């Protein structure tokens, strides 16, 4: 079983990765992409699916994917969706010693990996919710320069 969104929000490793990615962006003057943005995308993605009548499980998956969607920025801005998806696959393993992936993890993995793909429609409802959560975080406080 995949972690809950609360497990992900309080995971120290995930927090460290997101904070580091934001620190890198801050040093080059790029807009804020830290914990606040991750929480915004998470909350919005879950809200969208809730308002559309999706199950709590789907809402939880959307919130997890929304929170993790930019984690790959700690590696590079270019290709961050794909590197973030691979990172999420590792971070969400139910047991670090005994790898047994579930379809829930694949839903999150796919949503993160496709959230910047402008060449196609979102492949799943969760991916669409994550894109909305990400792209609705528009305000001048995110700008650094």
Outline the structure in words.
The protein is mainly α. It has helices at 5-9, 12-27, 35-51, 56-68, 80-91, 103-114, 125-135. The protein has seven helices and no strands. The chain is globular and about 40 Å long. The mean pLDDT is 85.
Distance between the termini: 42 Å
Count of alpha and pi helical runs: 7
Helix content: 55-70%
User: Largest sheet, described in full?
Assistant: none
The proportion of strand residues reads under 5%
Radius of gyration: 14 Å
State the total count of DSSP E strands.
0
Inertia-based shape = globular
Q: Give the mean pLDDT.
A: 85
User: Low-confidence segments, ≥5 residues, pLDDT <50?
Assistant: none
The helix-and-strand class reads mainly alpha
Order of helices and strands: HHHHHHH
Short description:
The protein is mainly alpha-helical.
Secondary-structure blueprint:
Elements: H1 5-9, H2 12-27, H3 35-51, H4 56-68, H5 80-91, H6 103-114, H7 125-135
Helix pairs in contact: 3-4, 3-7, 4-6, 4-7, 5-6, 6-7
Name its key features:
7 helices, mainly alpha, 59% helix, 145 residues
């Amino acid at each position: 079983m995949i972690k809950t969104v609360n497990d992900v929000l309080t995971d120290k490793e995930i927090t460290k990765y997101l904070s580091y990615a934001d620190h890198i962006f801050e040093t080059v003057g790029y807009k804020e992409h830290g914990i606040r943005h991750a929480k915004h995308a998470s909350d919005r993605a879950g809200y969208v699916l809730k308002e559309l009548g999706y199950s709590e499980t789907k809402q939880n998956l959307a919130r997890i994917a929304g929170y993790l969607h930019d984690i790959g920025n700690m590696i590079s801005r270019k290709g961050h969706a794909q590197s973030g998806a691979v990172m999420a696959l590792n971070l969400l393993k139910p047991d670090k010693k005994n790898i047994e992936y579930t379809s829930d993890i694949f839903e999150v993995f796919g949503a993160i990996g496709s959230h910047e793909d402008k060449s196609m429609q979102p492949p799943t409802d969760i991916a669409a919710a994550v894109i909305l959560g990400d792209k609705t975080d528009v305000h001048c406080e995110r700008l650094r320069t």
